[in-house]
């Protein structure tokens, strides 16, 4: 089963359209001029337009450096009309994303990437989930997957996907395997679902997987000719119970969940 991320995202957005629209600005911050980052922000802008949300893009110069960028991000997002903010990652080489991200107040952190928001999430006290976690939850709900009886592998333990997803899964599944750099992927043959966020084409293949397993793929790999691939090669997709394609799988759901967070955080404000 091929999971249509656009369809799942559409269901989330239809629910949001029935809620009171936040009369606040969704601030998106782009440092530099990376075309891939600009493309991801364009997707967010399109969703904001569909919802009627006031989306504003702020371009900041790399030359500001870590201190200048932290100061400018803080100045932008502290403004009262701003109800949520994202700093598009990755940042250009030489910049410290954690240092700059922490200028975003927890109450406006729709990405759940600042230390305060992550700390609250790790202690089950944050009002919203990291978008990658919410995406996994949405997909598992869509296929009526029973985590309690499942053996699950998380491939890649990065800050955006693997780390928060792993924490959320802890205690929810029968057995959890955390597979970082240099881990033996042979364990995938026993798992009921693999969640991957490596960004390396073909790192997860159908012949590695247990028959009837599922794959949730967050990886993005760009070939020199401009083609895009995920971590999972769907050549033998009939061997798996479900999988997310790249593009068109987890990406649209992530964006929809980002806006769900924006609505939730602003619904709590008096």
Key traits:
three-stranded parallel sheet; 270 residues; 12 strands; globular; alpha/beta; five-stranded parallel sheet; single chain; 8 helices
User: Helicity level, as a percent range?
Assistant: 25-40%
Determine the structural class based on helices, strands and strand pairing: alpha/beta
Order of helices and strands: HEHEHEHHHEHEEEEEEEEH
Please give the alpha-carbon distance between the first and last residues: 43 Å
Q: Could you write a compact summary of the structure shown?
A:
The protein is α/β, with parallel strands linked by helices.
Kindly describe this structure.
The chain is of the alpha/beta class and 270 residues long. The protein has helices spanning 5-17, 35-51, 65-77, 97-101, 115-122, 131-142, 162-169, 250-267, and strands spanning 25-31, 54-60, 82-87, 151-155, 175-179, 193-196, 204-205, 214-217, 221-222, 228-229, 232-233, 242-243. The strands form 4 sheets. A 5-stranded parallel sheet has the order 5-4-6-8-12, covered by helices on one side. A 3-stranded parallel sheet has the order 2-1-3, with helices on both faces. It starts with a helix and ends with a helix. The model has no long low-confidence stretch (mean pLDDT 95).
């Amino acid at each position: 089963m091929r999971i249509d991320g656009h369809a799942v995202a559409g269901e989330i957005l239809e629910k949001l359209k029935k809620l009171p629209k936040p009369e606040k600005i969704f601030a998106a911050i782009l440092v530099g001029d990376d075309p891939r980052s600009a493309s991801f922000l364009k997707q967010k802008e399109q969703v904001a337009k569909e919802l009627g949300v006031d989306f504003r893009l702020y371009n900041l110069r790399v030359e500001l450096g870590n201190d200048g960028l932290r100061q400018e991000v803080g100045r932008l997002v502290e403004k009262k009309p701003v109800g949520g903010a994202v700093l598009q990652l990755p940042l250009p080489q030489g910049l410290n994303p954690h240092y700059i991200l922490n200028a975003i107040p927890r109450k406006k952190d729709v990405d759940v990437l600042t230390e305060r928001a992550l700390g609250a999430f790790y202690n089950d006290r944050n009002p919203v989930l990291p978008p990658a976690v919410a995406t996994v939850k949405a997909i598992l709900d869509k296929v009526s997957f029973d985590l309690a009886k499942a053996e699950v592998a998380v491939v890649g333990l990065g800050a955006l996907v693997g780390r928060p997803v792993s924490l959320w899964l802890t205690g929810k599944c029968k057995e959890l395997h955390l597979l970082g750099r240099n881990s033996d992927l042979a364990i995938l043959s026993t798992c009921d679902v693999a969640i991957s966020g490596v960004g390396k084409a073909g790192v997860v293949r159908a012949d590695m997987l247990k028959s009837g397993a599922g794959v949730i793929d967050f990886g993005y790999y760009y070939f020199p000719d401009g083609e895009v691939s995920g971590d999972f090669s769907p050549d033998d997709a009939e061997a798996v119970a479900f999988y997310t394609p790249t593009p068109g799988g987890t990406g649209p759901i992530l964006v929809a969940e980002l806006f769900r967070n924006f609505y939730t955080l602003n619904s709590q404000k008096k």
